[in-house]
Structures are given as structure tokens and as C-alpha cells.
Amino acid sequence: MNKANVLLIGTGGVGTIVACGLVYNKKASVSVVVRSDYKKVKEHGWEIQSCDYGHLPAWKPDHIFPTVDAAAEVGVVYDYVVMTTKNLPDVVKPEDVAAPAITVGKTTVVLIQNGFDLGRPFIAKYPQNFCLSGVSHIGSHNHGGVISQTQHDKCLVSYFENPNLGKEEQEAKAKEFIDLYSNDKNSVSYFPDVKWYRYRKLVYNATLNTACALTRVDTGRLALSGTLEAVSIPAMHEVIKVAKADGVELPEDVINTVVHSDDGDWFKPSMLVDVEKGNPIELEVILGNLLVVARELKVETPTLDLLYHLLKATQFKLKEGKGLIDVPKERSISSKFYS
Amino acid sequence: MNKANVLLIGTGGVGTIVACGLVYNKKASVSVVVRSDYKKVKEHGWEIQSCDYGHLPAWKPDHIFPTVDAAAEVGVVYDYVVMTTKNLPDVVKPEDVAAPAITVGKTTVVLIQNGFDLGRPFIAKYPQNFCLSGVSHIGSHNHGGVISQTQHDKCLVSYFENPNLGKEEQEAKAKEFIDLYSNDKNSVSYFPDVKWYRYRKLVYNATLNTACALTRVDTGRLALSGTLEAVSIPAMHEVIKVAKADGVELPEDVINTVVHSDDGDWFKPSMLVDVEKGNPIELEVILGNLLVVARELKVETPTLDLLYHLLKATQFKLKEGKGLIDVPKERSISSKFYS
What we know:
In chain A, 44% of the residues lie in helices and 18% in strands. By secondary structure, chain A is α/β, with parallel strands linked by helices.
């Protein structure tokens, strides 16, 4: 049997360990795209200190490419393109990033990324391709080409439903990918209801993660200042309402569980960490995509709307800081009439 | 005729120039309370570089005290207590700060401070005293005891209506204070409708100042990111609605005027400057007091409410930074049930 051809895009802490798991299994030929550390990694590989795979002083996958174009130019038809980049469609659209490596009707896209309704732009662009979902619970970081994995690689795999393909085929495709990726070191399993799971995550991410990013306090201080109860909990009720309108019933005590999930920690959620580091936040996939669905289902979400529109200003500044937006030195005078 | 006894509390850039204007006029005996620079100022006075009064290398008022208690202990009955501190009732209540120097039924309080409905706690505590309002348009800063006044001292004086006193008496008292303070260098005038004027200022301060403080962008970037139109303009409509319910008609084009007031500048409003400096923000007097009135008048203000509750978290962190709030090193585990 020929090995499956897998191209992984995004070799941060998560992506590198996913690639590691695929290579360890020996069922796939694993290629990766490395942007910033290409030269170093091409020559010396990664140093990986992993709680799952031990100390790998110079780990390399089968092929290393500096760009997706370079990976496409070698003429391989990829069976899977696994995306483990941050998902920032307002900076660069992931379905465009992956495009050169995707063969229509052939390549399965696997999105191991944070966020909600991530499959929609891929299915719109590649209606004949499978699009899988991976929700990762790993703890792993890339510090300049040195990977430090401190929490076990646990990943729940499912599919973003593509109405052009049969459900059974899609489920089978998810299980085929699990077969490539799952091994005796990691915990990769099939989770049937991706929609339920991603709504469940939003109860935290769309409400606490966003409010902390905006106000720059951890979840503990958010509670002490009263903002948790005045803002985040009403926002959680809105997430639950959208889910319900979308046919997803979340557990009755979900709010209590979510609020208590950081008990005992002054915990800084991922968006706050990004804001503090000056990195663009995953605003569109964590909150923007939810609001698109809310509008389609005609559910009102005033608290989430306001969090979103306020975070647009935060995101503007983060993008400007990264040179992604250029603001002229002199502010021009607008003639617009505001009312 | 005896000179009026005036005690001024708060010798920042604004307060020092107000004191300067009173001294210049020679109609009052002017005492001031100086907290941080007391020793230096008591000995050497202030160096003032003023666009109104010129260069004063070692300016001193008639009396300098280190505390309000010290000013009260000398046995003088103050005709006026002028407050030019920042107004931060969630840190320290100004009506308590001034208390030792206030003689019931005698001392007129003059609040030359930012914010809305500032008279309420003074009138509640001192129902037989006059409470005047000063809205200052000066540009002046205190850099470690050196005062740099770059914009003309223009001040509009009126009264916060005290229902226990006659309107004519209150107007007369405002004009009496103007007579002490107004001189040939400054522009101090009577403005009949303090409520109108302070609502008018809120159209900017409760909406743009707050949103910029929260998102940490200037008003120009707030417009470019879309947050101005999505958040601040709806908030302006809410201010106008509260004003209307309170009997105050703002001009039809007020929103357009307010939005264009920073045209051509990447302008950072005062609350954003405070956030960047790590200073507590005037959240309660700029936004909290407005929401109290909105609740009394049963006007819904969902956008302003959310801005307020989010800024409570910002304020929490600012107060913690100044040692005004103590957060334990270990976060305790709450047993509260959230729903």
C-alpha cells in the first residue's frame, strides 16, 4: 500500500507535534511548510522536548518546504492538507493559503485550529473536497525552532459537514485520517458532533476570552471587577441561544462549568496572551463567524455584537503594530456627515 | 470690605492657574492644599510658565497647607472651597475630602472638574450649601511643581441646582464667585444651563473617550476600525435620549459636530491618556453618574451600560496598579453557582 501524502502547514507548537505523531506512525509521507525558521530547520531539524515522544534533538519530517507553492511545485498530489496555523481570515484567508496544494475532489483539508464554523469558506471554495475538524487539547510551544510539549496531545477529530458529500463518506474520511495520526503516544479519537463541541467551546471563548482581551485582565480579575457577571454571563446566554436556534442543546449547567473552569488560577486566555504579545487575535473565527450564524438564524446578540465591534479596534491596532495596516502620519479630514 | 476666604484643593495644572487667577485679582485670601509637592512648594513656590500670567519664577498663594485638615485647623471659615482634583468617587469621595473645610450653611463648594451630575453627593451631604459648577477649557500641566499653561484659562461657571435654595440666590452666588475669579487675563463667564452643557460634553466623553480608553486607540483609529460607527455613535444616541428624558434638547447635528471635533488629529482623549499612564479613570463621573440618571428616568442605554461594565475591569486593573486594590497571590476557589 502506498503511504498517504500529507502536507502540514503551520509548524508552531501544535503543528510540529501533529507532524511528529504522523511521522511516528509511519503510515504517511509527511511534508511540512516552514516559514520563519526554514533554513535552520531544513539543515538541523527541530529540537523537540515532548511529554509524548521524549527528547528528539534533530527531528525532521520527510520533506520540508519554505512555502506552499514550493510544496505544490514538486508535483505530489496531497491526500491531506493539515492546517495548524492560527486562523486569521482578516489577515490572510486559510483557504487561499492552502490553495496551491489542494487538488479538487481529491485533497482532504484538516483544520486543527481554534474557532467556529471554520469549514464554511473551504467547502464554498472546494465543494467536492472533504473538510475535517480537529480540536486539539495539547500544550505545546515553539520557541525559535525548539518545541516544548508539556501537555499530552489529545485531539478530537470530526468533519465540517459538506452538503455535497454523504455523511457516511465524511465520517469514514475522518476515521481514515485518525488512522494515520493516532498512535500509542497520543490520544486521537472520533467525536461525532463537531458543531456541538465547537459551540461548547464558544461559551468560554466568545465571552471570557474576548472580554479579557478587551479589558486586559485575567478571568479571575474579570470576576472580581464585576465584569464577568455584567458582561460575560449575558454573552454566554447569547451563545446558548444561537446554539439552540442552530439545533444544538448545550448542558443546563454549562455556564457554571465554564466560569469555574479557571478556578484557583489567575488565568489569561489565549486572546489576552496574543494582545499582550502584540499578535493579531483570532477575532473572526472565535466571534465573527458566530455572529454570521446568529444573523442567519435571526438571533439577537447585542452583548456579543458590542464585544466584537470593540475588539475590531483592538485588532486594528494589533495589525498596525505588525505592519499589516498602514496609517498615514497626517490624519485626513473626513467630509462624512455623522448622525 | 473683608477679602473672601478661598481654599483650593488640587494643585495640578488647572488648579494652580485657577489659584493664580484668584490671587491676581486681589479680592480673595487664597489658601491651597498641596499633597505631593508640599515641602518644595512651601519653601520655593511654583515655577509657572503661563500664557495668561507670564513667567512667575516662585509663585505662592496666601497660604499653603499639606492637608485639608491642616487648612481647617487654622480656624478660618472658608467662604469657598474650590475643588480642582480629579473626581474619582470610587477611589475617594470628593465630598469627604472637602469635609473638614466646609462650614454648614456657609461654605460654597465650587467643582471645577470633569463629569456629570457632580453636585448630587455634595447637595445630599450639605443641603444648605451652594454648589457651583466650573467647566474649564484650559490647557495646563504640572510637571513636578513646574506649571506649564499653554492654553488660555476659559471657564464657564454655573450652579448645580440645590432644591433647598432659591434659583436666584444660586445664580447670584455663581456670579459672586465669578467676580472673585474673573480678571483681565482669563475668560470666566456665567453659563446659565449647566445641565445642558454637561450633557453636551458627555456626547463626546461618555462615548468616544470611553471607547478609546477601552480599546486603547485614538479617535482617528476608532473611526478607521469601524468601532466609531458600530459602538460610539449608537452610544451618542443613548446620551441624547437620556438628555431628552431629562428635559435637555441637544442640537440636531451634535453627533456630527462631536465626531468632527478631532478632525485632522490622531487625538487621544483624557481617559485613554490616563489608561496609558496607569492612572485610574474618571469612569464614575463621566459614565456611571449618567447611568444613574438613565435608570431614574427609565431610559434604556444598552451600549453605554456595556461600555461602563467593561471599563470597570480596566479600572480594577488601574486601581490594583496604584495599590488601591489588593489581590491575593493565590486565587480562591468560589463556590458560587453561575447561571
